[in-house]
Each structure stands twice: as structure tokens, then as C-alpha cells.
Amino acid sequence: MPTRRWAKPGSGGKKVGKNPTDRGKKGSKKSVLTDEQGGPLGAVVAAANVNDHLLLEATIEAIVVERPEPSAERPQHLCLDGGYNNEPSREVAARHHYTAHIRPGGEEEGSYRKTATHKPRRWVVERTLAWLSKCRALLVRYDKHAENYLGLLQLACALLWYRRLHRLRAT
Questions:
Q1: pTM for the whole thing?
Q2: What is the pLDDT, as a whole number, of residue 106?
Q3: What DSSP string runs through 82-118?
Q4: Rounded mean pLDDT of the chain?
Q5: What is the largest CA-CA distance in the chain?
Q6: Which residues, 6 or more positions from 143, have their beta carbon under 8 angstroms from its beta carbon?
Q7: Which of 39, 43, 49, 70 is a good FRET partner for 8, with 20 to 30 A between their CA atoms?
Q8: Which domains does the chain have, with CATH numbers?
Q9: 87 or 9, greater pLDDT
Q10: pLDDT per residue over 73-94, tens digit each?
Q11: 41 vs 149: CA distance, rounded Å
């Protein structure tokens, strides 16, 4: 873990130097695209210091199932968090024919309408990442090569789909 250095007393309590939120952070990042129930459709692995919006196009292109053609009657929605609130992310979503729903930064938690038609969306990906983290090899990265780690991530995604299919057949 990087060392933390603190500013002198009276300087407003601002941190100085390396901490886990710096851009020089070591580690890896999983970028996952899911369906509305949390089933993983595509996954990409990158260094932890890569901004999320730079992984958006690669994540969309990593979708392994054939995507239905969006139409005016049935548009396809892409729900993103505040890290994607920029023009390049909107361009990528438009280029791939998605209707982007990007939550602006600084928006209050309870400022949106909570109705049956407006369900929370972004937590679905967080839940899927939590499911994937139950696999020990994904929680702590033991593989040196990104290809091996991506292969384990894709295997875990396939296992999630297998379990879902098995649950649907049991009912």
C-alpha cells in the first residue's frame, strides 16, 4: 500500500503525496458491461491508473453475444456513473447506437424519482462485480499476465451465466 503523507497542521487538512486515489496507483481495474439483471455481457482488464471513460469503447466492443439492432421503438440504454460524464464518453455511446444515461457529478442521492418505472440502475454493475469478487483468483490478482487474468474473469462471467440458467431451469 502506498505511503500517505499529510500536510502540516493548519493547512486545511489536505493530503500531500501518494495515496490510493493517485493516478500512479498500482493494480488492475475490471470494466464490466451487464444486462439489466446483472448478467455480464463484456469485460475488459486494464491498469488501475487508467480513467474509466478510456475503457468504455473497449468494454462495449468486448460484448460476446450478438446485440439486437436498436430502433426508435426499442432503443438500447447505457447507464453510466459520473466518471463517464464527459464528451468522449457520450460520443462513444452514440457511435455504438446507445442512449446514454450519465448521472452528473454532485447530484444529490435522493434527488431522483423513486418509482416502479424509474428503478436504480448503476448498482447492478456493482453487484455483478461483487459476485465476480467471490472468485478468489479475481479478488486478489495472482496472475502476472493480463491475458490470464482476463481469461479468469471471462470464465467467472460464464459461470455466473451457467448458474443463472441452472436456476431458471429448476423453477
A1: 0.74
A2: 60
A3: GGG-SHHHHHHHHHTTEEEEEPPTT--TT-S--SSSS
A4: 80
A5: 63
A6: 137, 149, 152
A7: 49
A8: 27-66+74-107+121-170 (3.30.420.10)
A9: 87
A10: 888 888 888 888 899 999 999 9
A11: 17
